[in-house]
Amino acid sequence: MTLEVSKKSNISALWSKINKSSSILSKSPDLLYRTGRRFIGYDNINSLYYVVPATNWVTDWVGRYITTAVSQQFDLHAQVTSSPHLLIDHILHYGEAGAFLASIGTRRNRENALIATIFHGNYTAEFPQLTHNTKQFVENTPHLTKVITACRLMENRLIKWGVPSEKIACIPLGIDLEKFHPATTQQRIICRQQSGVPDDAFCIGSFQKDGDGWSEGLSPKLVKGPDIFLRVVKNLHKQYTNLFVLLTAPARGYVKQGLTRMGVPFSHTVLSDFQAVAKMYHCLDAYLITSREEGGPKAVLESLASGTPLVSTRVGMSPDVIKHGINGLLTEIEDVAELTEAVSQLIEDKVLRQRLAAKGLEDIQAYGWQNIAARYYQEVYKPILAAS
């Protein structure tokens, strides 16, 4: 009996030593890192890590553009990462609200200056999941040094929900003006031929993912308004027989089925490289946004930079960027009649299309990534560095 107790005691002591050693080892990178920095007298924040999902989608490219431009213009090491787990004493900028929420309670969130971007959110019974995610984000904003949003609409909502205004930075998305530009006549001809757009067609573009999941997308993501899009196209199809719809992005099955039922010709391309969407704008006569909720969308900036006339509901950045009747056309959310009328104006008035496009090209210059990244540095990163 005494021998058995002794064995159990020895085993218990061994496990205690193993657990203690594991704890020390798990912290050793931090200990070595901190000790080294303190030894040379340098113990403040020294780098920016922009956390991205590594899906080659919008957030990844936003992070790349910001960190590249910040590194080029300012004395700050900046890079994207999808694995921030061992980072300490840095600025961690979560490019999506979901990534920040998934990290709540982790060690890295106690040992870095935290920033999170929230592009869109609302408290609405119509979209319960959106409401849940938004509430969770707002409840956890005390953990953040700064909250970033891209539009005034979302900034005002955050303040209304109790987020201190001094904690919020409203900085729009940017655009790569070298990649997105108007097409030459030859580029337009080639693009339309490659995409199957008839020469005499009025081509309407829709390049956003608006179905649930990442496969066929037969179930609509109603926040993006694919049902509204179809109703507008149906109305237009009754008036104009030369209508053609050009689609990109994954999960467009719901819209494709609807267009097929109506007999509206369309083409759909899933691009392996997100940035390849730039050339697709060369096919278009107009771009249509029918969303109910947005944080951008990027298509607002992409359309203007490409010289493509834009019709959009008043969502996200649209009211901040678009001056109705000056550089684009705005409508109320879910107003199918108003959306139909706006596109009809573009179809029937070539001079209007040219005027909107020309003014859009002039206004979009302020949204180049070099300008936007400079705002990120001056309004967000520099104050954090100064306070560290």
Write the topology of this structure.
Elements: H1 2-39, E1 47-51, H2 58-73, E2 77-81, E3 91-94, H3 97-102, E4 113-117, H4 128-139, E5 146-149, H5 152-160, E6 168-170, H6 185-195, E7 202-206, H7 226-239, E8 243-248, H8 253-262, E9 266-269, H9 277-280, E10 286-289, H10 298-305, E11 310-313, H11 318-321, E12 329-331, H12 336-348, H13 350-363, H14 369-387
Parallel strand pairs: 1-2, 1-3, 3-4, 4-5, 5-6, 7-8, 7-10, 8-9, 10-11, 11-12
Helix pairs in contact: 2-14, 7-8, 7-12
Structural overview:
The protein is α/β, with parallel strands linked by helices and 388 residues long. The protein folds into two domains: 47-174 and 369-387, Rossmann fold (3-Layer(aba) Sandwich), CATH 3.40.50; 185-367, 3-Layer(aba) Sandwich (Rossmann fold). It is built from 14 helices and twelve strands. It has helices at 2-39, 58-73, 97-102, 128-139, 152-160, 185-195, 226-239, 253-262, 277-280, 298-305, 318-321, 336-348, 350-363, 369-387; strands at 47-51, 77-81, 91-94, 113-117, 146-149, 168-170, 202-206, 243-248, 266-269, 286-289, 310-313, 329-331. A six-stranded parallel sheet has the order 2-1-3-4-5-6, with helices on both faces. Helix 8 (253-262) links the parallel strand 8 and strand 9 (266-269). Helix 2 crosses helix 14 (369-387), helix 7 packs parallel to helix 8 (253-262) and helix 7 crosses helix 12. The longest helix has 38 residues, at 2-39. Residues 1-8, 17-27 and 37-43 have low confidence and may be disordered.
